[in-house]
Amino acid sequence: MPHFLEGYFWNVSNPELWVGIGLILFFGIVIAAGVPKLVAGTLDAKAAKIQAELDEAARLRAEAEALLATIRQEKAEAEAQAQEMLRAAEADARTMEVEARARLEETMARRQAMAERRIAQAEAQATAEVKAAAADVAARAAEAILTARIAGQTTDPMLDAAIGQISTRLN
């Protein structure tokens, strides 16, 4: 049985009665003063502040995730662009190599043709020098024979025929 239902509890000399009355008065004053509304308002304000912070954190997280996705996409695009640049550079290098080989072959062909022309000129010049030297030797021999002939006044028909043919054979 509850204690406050006993007759002793309602006796004015009972301190427990006065503690109960004081407690009821205290709660009445607290309620009349609006403390529950104040506490509820403070708790609601704190809850709203915490909810705002959570919303801000969620928004910041969403922004960070979007930024991360953007960065990853830009990274992928940059890597793709770098790969494309590398492929283009390799293609350019191959093209330049082919062009350089073609220029080298062309240069070598020109130099070979020039060398062949110089060799031909040198051969022609050597042939001309040999012919000139042979003509000079023949002319000296003819002069020596003619000098000896004039000195001896003898005629040799074979010698006369050979001297006549020298000019036609040298040219």
From TrEMBL:
UniProt KW keywords: ATP synthesis, Cell membrane, CF(0), Coiled coil, Hydrogen ion transport, Ion transport, Membrane, Transmembrane, Transmembrane helix, Transport
Coiled-coil residues: 43-125
InterPro entries linked to this entry: ATP_synth_b/b'su_bac/chlpt (IPR002146)
Membrane topology: Single-pass membrane protein
Subcellular location: Cell membrane; Endomembrane system
GO MF terms, alphabetically ordered: proton-transporting ATP synthase activity, rotational mechanism
Superkingdom per UniProt: Bacteria
Record-annotated membrane-spanning stretches: 17-39
Chief site of localization: membrane
GO cellular component: endomembrane system; plasma membrane; proton-transporting ATP synthase complex
Annotated HAMAP family: ATP_synth_b_bprime
Family: Belongs to the ATPase B chain family.
Function: F(1)F(0) ATP synthase produces ATP from ADP in the presence of a proton or sodium gradient. F-type ATPases consist of two structural domains, F(1) containing the extramembraneous catalytic core and F(0) containing the membrane proton channel, linked together by a central stalk and a peripheral stalk. During catalysis, ATP synthesis in the catalytic domain of F(1) is coupled via a rotary mechanism of the central stalk subunits to proton translocation.
Subunit record text: F-type ATPases have 2 components, F(1) - the catalytic core - and F(0) - the membrane proton channel. F(1) has five subunits: alpha(3), beta(3), gamma(1), delta(1), epsilon(1). F(0) has three main subunits: a(1), b(2) and c(10-14). The alpha and beta chains form an alternating ring which encloses part of the gamma chain. F(1) is attached to F(0) by a central stalk formed by the gamma and epsilon chains, while a peripheral stalk is formed by the delta and b chains.
Protein name (database record): ATP synthase subunit b
Native species: Brevundimonas variabilis
